[in-house]
Amino acid sequence: MLLLFILGLLVHFVFFGSIFDIYFTSPLVHGMTPQFTPLPPPAKRLVLFVADGLRADALYEFDENGNPRAPFIRNIIMHEGSWGISHTRVPTESRPGHVALIAGFYEDVSAVAKGWKENPVGFDSLINESKYTWSWGSPDILTMFAKGVGGDHIYTYSYDAESEDFGAHDVTKLDTWVFDHVKEFFHAARNNQSLFSKVNEEKIVFFLHLLGIDTNGHAHRPTSREYKDNIKVVDDGIKEIVSMLEHFYGNDGKTAFIFTSDHGMTDWGFHGAGHPSETLTPFVTWGAGIKYPQKVSAQKFDDAFLKEWKLENWKRQDIHQADVAPLMASLIGVPFPLNSVGILPIDYLNNTDLFRAESMFTNAMQILEQFKVKMTQKKEAILPFFFTPFKLLSESKQLNILRKARSYIKQRKYDEAVSLCKELIHLALKGLSYYHTYDRFFLGVSVVLGFVGWTSYASLLIIKSHSNLTRGVSKEVKKPSHLLACSFIAIGVFVAFFLLIQDCPWTYYVYCLLPIPIWYAVLREFRVIQDFVLSLLTFPLSQLVAYLFIFTLGIEVLVLSFFYRYTLTAGLVAFACWPFITQLRTRAKSISLSWIFFSLLLAVFPLMPVVGRKPDIFLVMGAGSLVLLLSLCVVTSLLKRKDHFINEELLLHLFQMLSIVLSMYVVYTTHDSLLKKQGLPLFNQIISWITL
């Protein structure tokens, strides 16, 4: 049985690892040719403000006194630029959000192996394509765009990681630090000829990462005074930076500004999932190449936001977060990031129809390049007669669309050209997804075969050793026929050869070959299967159907609980009824009553909110006190016993009670310290590690 246990662990480790090969492989490809718009760009420089953790509603709404929470940004929306909502994707974390904004692609799922903190595969970005980039902010964000980039055109200025303390007295200093250092930088540029000439070049980027709002949101919640005041600090800081830059460049009208966020935050101060409060972020842009505000009488959005924010008369243009990267590239005339899947939002551009059409054509070519590289890679790795191409975008169709789009541009039919380019982009994106998931079905079938085989084998061993359903079967395994063994060996050789000629990764051999010995072991127990089936046939059909229905219903309840938590309540209520359909209620009344009581008590839990909106220290302390009370009951019962285990068990329970007391102390004092904005006490950290 020990060998079986070890084998089971190994099999399950393989199944767990298969998740990463099937669902978490990097979608990024390399080897594309850079694409850029062959026309002069409207802007020489771009300033990108990213307010980490800022929700759209928190920025656009009015405060308690009926005044705009961010008056400068509100003024931009109404008099100088364009605005909308940027829709992010899961996981709504800082690194994935910034990658989507600056590199144009959504989270590389292979980064789950790095805890979403670092990308294991290299990628291109707007910062990499720029002539020079200067960035200020958090070291966690700035370094990932400078890491592994050749040349010396990226300059980062960041504070110490220790400054990012949720419990600090005033975390708005994270944002004022950025604003102050940007001012110092431009002041120094006036007295440094080399730096002055660099900041006056074309195709340059200034990136300001503002972490204070996110930190205040985690520490105090987005509904807190600290979070809302931090938005005002950011608004004032942006106003000063914009004014300073316009003065520095002599109001030349060649600076484009973008203000947005990487993700939002829930009311209880978390992010990472797909709640609207996490995925809806603000997007405001103005300056060179950007359309001025457009007053409208009606808008296409059916949500209530426009009325709440009193912006129903100013045209709102929503975008996807990855669309920001091609927009920024188009504004300053650099190549679109090679791995970008963003679609250029041309409605934001204030330029000629020719420029808009050419930019859209460049966008289509850039995404099509990725499709071609991905298709070539997959085609080279698969035997020709097994390869199934993406039929919606054949080579002839690609050429036909590109030829037509180019012809429309020459004929000045710019709207038709833009429409064709968008069609090509959507097809290329579908094709990218098709080739990225090309092996998913094949690997999925292999893993399912292995999992079903292992489940069957384990079930057969349990039936054989621990039931009376197979009385006629010998407990010893009879020597199987040579034909069965030879057949499975032949299948294994064939599968291995098939994978070898396709140059598959070694993990594919594991997933595809593992089911073979497992199913061989299952078929060796053929007599157990036969006897088990015969035993089942002796049961009344109605009883079999009833059991099958109950098992199926139970599984469905577990599956539905992922989407509707209250289905667990129904399952627990059914559990509470179990003693009524057995003899237990008459044989053990006290146990039956306690079973019913605790099952019903537990049934209340799935009906409660998933996460509370604010911490309830009294609930936590009450739970700890209840555990201590129950522990005292156990200790009392142990003292009444007189066997030789009492000392060891009593000592163990006393230590457990001590750990509960220490935990309660740590939680209470930490909560009190954070309320006073004194941070996390070192003593509490030490106690927590000792308790663990």
UniProtKB/TrEMBL annotation:
Pathway: Glycolipid biosynthesis; glycosylphosphatidylinositol-anchor biosynthesis. InterPro entries: Alkaline_phosphatase_core_sf (IPR017850), GPI_EtnP_transferase_1 (IPR007070), GPI_EtnP_transferase_1_C (IPR017852), Phosphodiest/P_Trfase (IPR002591), PIGN_N (IPR037671). Residues 430-692 form the GPI ethanolamine phosphate transferase 1 C-terminal domain. The keyword Membrane applies. Keywords: Endoplasmic reticulum, Glycoprotein, GPI-anchor biosynthesis, Membrane, Transferase, Transmembrane, Transmembrane helix. GO terms for cellular component: endoplasmic reticulum membrane. This is GPI ethanolamine phosphate transferase 1. It comes from Gulo gulo.
